[in-house]
Every structure is written in C-alpha cells, then in structure tokens.
Design brief:
By secondary structure, this protein is mostly beta strands. Strands 2, 4, 5, 6, 9, 10 and 11 form a seven-stranded mixed beta sheet that branches. Strands 1-3-8-7 form a four-stranded antiparallel beta sheet, with no helix packed on it. The protein is 0% helix and 57% strand.
Length: 115
C-alpha cells in the first residue's frame, strides 16, 4: 500500500483545511485508515480512525472539529479540519492497516495555524 498525503498549508486560527490521502497498491487489503499528527518535540498522536464498516473514532482533542471520511471509489482518505487552533500546528500523516496487521504510512503534510 502506498499513501500520498496532501492539503496542508498555512491557515489562520478559526479557519479550515481539508487534507487528502491518496491510496494505491493493495487497496482491497485495507481494514482501517487513520490520521495522525506530530508536533515539534511531541510524540505522534492518533487523531481519527475509519473502519471498513465506516465506523469512526476520534481523539478528544479533535472531536467535534475534525471529520474523517473515505471515498472508496477514488481510494482517497480525507480529514476535514474546522475551527483550527494554533495548537493544531503539526505534521499530519495518514496511515492504513491491512488484514495482516501491517501498517503503512504516508509522507506527512505540514499544517501551520497562526494566531
């Protein structure tokens, strides 16, 4: 599985961004997809997961502000981010878990939220 994240950039606090993650390769083997982020000096943080049955789960830090979705026809994962805060500044990564339990990661896209 290959993942290509895009959509990061600079946005003012209170603004919105939508991240995309294009998947290719063994798409049929994907069981879970998710978004993570890593801020400077901090550990990587799980933000949201979406399962093959379309169920979703969110970290408390983004619940109500971020929405994860997946367009299976276009093999693309999205993260709609609203009401952005300066503390949301980080490199955002998409990931996929296949049936064997192996994880695959995209290259990351930088989101900077100015105050």
């Amino acid at each position: 599985v290959q993942l290509q994240a895009s959509g990061g950039g600079l946005v003012q606090a209170g603004g919105s961004l939508r991240l995309s993650c294009a998947a290719s390769g063994n798409i049929a083997g994907i069981r879970i997809m998710g978004w993570y982020r890593q801020a400077p000096g901090k550990q990587r943080e799980l933000l949201a997961l979406i399962f093959n049955n379309h169920e979703t789960t969110y970290a408390d830090s983004v619940k109500g502000r971020f929405t994860i979705s997946r367009d299976s026809a276009q093999n693309t994962l999205y993260l709609q981010m609203n009401s952005l805060k300066p503390e949301d500044t980080a490199v955002y990564y998409c990931a996929a878990t296949i049936g064997t339990g192996d994880d695959y990661w995209g290259q990351g896209t930088l989101v900077t939220v100015s105050s």
